[in-house]
């Protein structure tokens, strides 16, 4: 696929109004994809599309902003129905929408905060993956790719982060289960685990993050373009190839070893 030429492949990015989702959705649009920007609030999605520019002169035909609570089954159904009506198929789903939880001892974690993390970090990507499977199995040509936004927390937790760690660990299970079920239908499923990209959500890490030994230390962060280029490398692969898991992280962060 020539990245400098528009094509007919269709992508859906959840949580596309900010951060990683916004940057990756914009990159797909500039890479020639038709892209559905999905998120809770319509205005940031529309602003993200405008900010991406119009390299092909037909952004109204290639980009679509759709407001949806992807933790709600009926809203996800409507999202995919609209996508299919507009573009006819789906070639790439980026399950990106997610939420952090404030550092809290496990025994003090309020049930509603736990439920919120499960709804956004696990329930939502499961629902979107279900709908993507249904569409990808029956469309022609058959198949497509799903990329889940995991986290290095899926493997190495931060202190006081039970809800986030557990839900991101579960994403690894979703990735592997869906990869196994999808391979007979030309559906490739992979996961990108990201550590310390420079966004508003990680600003506090630069100021000082709680470490496993109880100390608070500043952590290095990496530029967003490092994540985007890694994501695009996965997205552009032919369906005969799959990156099951990929870790991209700030080189100097305390992840490998004992930190």
Structure explained in plain terms:
The chain is α/β, with parallel strands linked by helices. It has a single domain, classed as NAD(P)-binding Rossmann-like Domain (Rossmann fold), CATH 3.40.50.720. Helices cover 41% and strands 17% of the residues. It is built from eight helices and nine strands. The protein has helices at 19-30, 42-51, 59-62, 73-87, 111-138, 162-182, 203-207, 224-235, and strands at residues 10-14, 34-39, 63-67, 92-95, 144-149, 187-195, 209-210, 216-217, 245-249. The strands form two sheets. A seven-stranded parallel sheet has the order 3-2-1-4-5-6-9, sandwiched between helices. Strands 7-8 form a two-stranded antiparallel ribbon. The chain is globular, with a radius of gyration of 18 Å. The model has no long low-confidence stretch (mean pLDDT 92).
Structural descriptors:
globular; alpha/beta; 259 residues; seven-stranded parallel β-sheet; two-stranded antiparallel ribbon; 9 strands; Rossmann fold
